[in-house]
Amino acid sequence: MAQNIERGYIQIYTGNGKGKTTAAIGLAIRALGAGKRVLFLQFMKQATYSEHKVLKDLSPRLKIVTLGKPYFIARRDQISPEAAAAMGNQIVVFEPGKPPADYVALINKGLSLAREALMGQSYDLVVLDELCVVLHLGLADVQEVLAMLKERQGPAEVVITGRGAPPELLNYADLVTEMREVKHYYHQGVPARTGIEN
Predict the structure, then answer these.
(1) Looking at residues 49-61, what average pLDDT do you find?
(2) Fold of the domain spanning 10-70+99-182
(3) Domain locations along the chain
(4) Phi, psi (degrees; rounded to nearest 5) at 34
(5) Which residues, other chains included, contact 9 with Cβ-Cβ below 8 Å and sequence gap of 6+?
(6) Helix, coil or strand: residue 189
(7) Burial 83-100 (b: 16+ CB within 10 A, else e)
(8) CA neighbor of 129 nearest in space, from 28, 53, 56
(9) What is the rounded distance in angstroms from the CA atom of residue 182 to the CA atom of residue 92?
């Protein structure tokens, strides 16, 4: 078991299917409806998604922080040259173990905010959106994240989302939901649609 009875559980939403962030947003709204305080940290994202237009003013008990750049990043061993070329200047491809320093600094800022929230009493729910992707890309160390989770003192439930959750994190979590893609119109060339995927 990952925690004492006084602390919230650790939930992970992972897998290659659609709906991980959407599920976390739904849980955040449910928590707000119950009078709870929510911190929603979005790694690898900017405040350009449709939900930000609503969430930023939804409740004074919700703090949302985005920690991304106006471009995607990918490890060279995880993307084909053709896919990278198709994205043009919207993507930065890096060698394994050598991520962009500015991105790592931004991720570290987010982890500091998460650590502070998990050590205090200010939040009842802490969402670490896309943290699994951060770990999958090697932008943060999974052992450091596990240490942060094990050392937490506050009462917060923790939700971690993103593709590629590392086995160590899956083993430590109390709840793991895998979103499995069975069929997706993206493969038919349908781009992300405002209000549905973006």
Answers:
(1) 84
(2) Rossmann fold (3.40.50)
(3) 10-70+99-182
(4) -95, 10
(5) 2, 3, 157, 158, 174, 175
(6) coil
(7) ebeeeeeeebbbeeeebe
(8) 28
(9) 29
